[in-house]
């Protein structure tokens, strides 16, 4: 009797164990390649748990910057591990060009997305920051200068050696070049006008071609500069420390820096990858990304508290007017442009 009971108990335990294994195997796993730091924290603490519970899926978060994630896609091109990736818009366009991104399937949520966020049929922006002007409000007031409102101010001789711009290796510097090309009748496909303007009109005013956010803040704090080309997020972070700095959306338009996402080709969980992309566009997630990452919402239905709205590109007056970069041209020409910049501008 005892042996029979033990055999029955063992059989039950094996059955339960097998059922557990089958259940574990039946839960799909979605691999997401995205930024580390505060973005990883927001995903792991807020976004992922809610999505896992709703979709009955397990998410593995693979942290890395855009270059790291793009390199993973390249290394794993024959058998991709990642199912959804977040990249800066420049590297994202490379990922699309290399054939790493699957088509984004249409969904009702995308009807609420600003046109700027629809990068192409294989990638979408989930947030935006702006490239524009940052200025020392106290220094301008003391000098009796009006608030800057145009990219053209970078050519004003009143700011000779009081201006800082990141180099072309930094997106802020690259977009300054593109903006001047556009203002002089050219653009990404006709960049000569931009180089001429930067070399002859802007460069004489530049004290430093500074890529480091930390050193840029030092230049402002030390009074070495009172005007710079910078990002909305960087400027707001600096302002939060108490420094009298303000970000300006120039009247010609501020350039967009987009945080892009794409479903990866040949995923073994394509439906879940598409669903996660759609979830990232929902108002609740867009608000979270604005609060924790400084990403301007790309969903037109999002309502932000005034305190948060003041810190990010928000609403049609700002998001709707951000100017995109033609990354397909830039990525092809960037090496050539960098060499030319080093020879003619940042000498």
CATH class of the largest domain: Alpha Beta
Structural class based on helices, strands and sheet pairing: alpha/beta
SSE run: HEHEHEHEHEHHEHEHEEHHHH
Please give the domain count. Answer: 2
CATH topology of the largest domain, by name, is D-Maltodextrin-Binding Protein, domain 2
| Structural shape | globular
The tally of beta strands, per DSSP, is 9
Strand content: 15-25%
User: How would a crystallographer describe the biggest sheet?
Assistant: 9 strands, mixed
The helical percent reads 40-55%
Distance between the first and last residues' Cα: 93 Å
Low-pLDDT runs? 1-24
Enumerate how many helices there are, as a single number: 13
Judging by the overall fold, what is the CATH architecture of the largest domain? 3-Layer(aba) Sandwich
The oligomerization state is single chain
User: Any idea what the CATH superfamily of the largest domain is called?
Assistant: Periplasmic binding protein-like II
Radius of gyration: 24 Å
Let me know the average pLDDT.
91
């Amino acid at each position: 009797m005892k042996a029979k009971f033990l055999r029955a108990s063992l059989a039950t335990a094996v059955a339960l164990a097998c059922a557990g294994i089958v259940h574990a195997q039946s839960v799909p796993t979605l691999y997401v390649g995205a930024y580390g730091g505060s973005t990883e924290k927001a995903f792991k603490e807020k976004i992922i748990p809610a999505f896992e519970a709703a979709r009955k899926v397990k998410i593995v978060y693979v942290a890395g910057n855009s270059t790291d994630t793009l390199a993973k896609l390249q290394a794993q091109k024959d058998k991709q591990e990642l199912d959804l990736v977040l990249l800066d818009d420049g590297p994202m366009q490379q990922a699309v060009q290399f054939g790493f991104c699957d088509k984004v399937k249409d969904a009702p949520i995308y009807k609420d997305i600003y046109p700027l966020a629809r990068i192409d049929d294989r990638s979408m922006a989930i947030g935006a920051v702006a490239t524009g002007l940052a200025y020392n409000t106290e220094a301008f007031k003391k000098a009796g200068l009006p608030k800057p409102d145009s990219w053209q101010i970078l050519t004003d001789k009143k700011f000779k050696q009081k201006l800082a711009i990141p180099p072309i290796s930094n997106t802020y510097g690259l977009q300054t070049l593109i903006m001047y090309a556009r203002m002089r009748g050219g653009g990404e496909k006709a960049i000569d006008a931009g180089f001429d303007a930067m070399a002859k009109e802007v460069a004489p005013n530049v004290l430093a071609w500074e890529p480091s956010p930390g050193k840029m803040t030092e230049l402002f704090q030390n009074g070495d500069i009172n005007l710079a080309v910078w990002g909305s997020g960087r400027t707001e972070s600096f302002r939060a420390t108490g420094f009298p700095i303000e970000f300006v959306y120039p009247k010609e338009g501020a350039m967009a820096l987009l945080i892009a996402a794409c479903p990866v080709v040949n995923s073994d969980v394509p439906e879940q990858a598409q669903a996660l992309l759609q979830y990232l566009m929902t108002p609740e997630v867009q608000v979270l990304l604005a609060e924790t990452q400084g990403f301007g919402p790309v969903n037109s239905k999002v309502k932000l508290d005034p305190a948060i709205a003041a810190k990010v590109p928000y609403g049609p007056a700002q998001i709707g007017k951000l100017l995109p970069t033609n990354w397909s041209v830039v990525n092809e020409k960037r090496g050539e442009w960098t060499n030319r910049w080093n020879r003619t501008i940042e000498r």
